[in-house]
Amino acid sequence: xxxxxxxxxxxxxxxxxxxxxxxxxxxxxxxxxxxxxxxxxxxxxxxxxxxxxxxxxxxxxxxxxxxxxxxxxxxxxxxxxxxxxxxxxxxxxxxxxxxxxxxxxxxxxxxxxxxxxxxxxxxxxxxxxxxxxxxxxxxxxxxxxxxxxxxxxxxxxxxxxxxxxxxxxxxxxxxxxxxxxxxxxxxxxxxxxxxxxxxxxxxxxxxxxxxxxxxxxxxxxxxxxxxxxxxxxxxxxxxxxxxxxxxxxxxxxxxxxxxxxxxxxx
Length: 266
Known about the structure:
Helix content is 47%, strand content 13%. The protein is α/β, with parallel strands linked by helices. It has a single domain, classed as CATH 3.20.20.70. The chain has a nine-stranded parallel β-sheet with strand order 5-4-3-2-1-9-8-7-6. Helix 2 links the parallel strand 1 and strand 2 (47-51). The longest helix has 17 residues, at 248-264.
């Protein structure tokens, strides 16, 4: 069992659900991201997802797109993100997941990327524009380097693709409860919970929900069915105030604590 899956299952044993917090590397700076990740860890996040900035993030809404633009203005690269992870790994044991678009990894070089990712302490990888049918070059390298490949499942995912994802992915199943981009408004929460419950009958791996979860109330409701939740845009929005809000870190910490509090009650 991987570090990611073990963490999610250990949290369940404590009668809680996991909080996965997303931050964009390099927003507002790489040094700030290091501080942000450690603060989010202290505030109660069980796992942390670090976004690698990309110029055309098709799965992301305006909030994360703007964060990526800010990071790219500082020329933040994959190499920079891996150095960041190495620094973080010396300071925290929290599982770290990279979220990167396919072209960024291919430009770095597949074998080199996975080798370096393992060396610095990456535990999982999410590539939102990489369907499982096209992941053949990634999967053997990920398995060799003990890095979970995490695929997204949507309400519109066909049964044959779902079977492929459940067979080839690892770590957890990432359920996207809406058809849209990150930061979209989540509605029909009862139906979302029903779909998550149905999905869990097809896999022994934890099922985690992301996209559209923006408040402790959302987290608590979706956490009734999911094994964990991912919150990104709501956190990135707070981080986006860094230049004019000297208290942004404490605001971020308080929000993360409130999200985790809701998941202790789920």
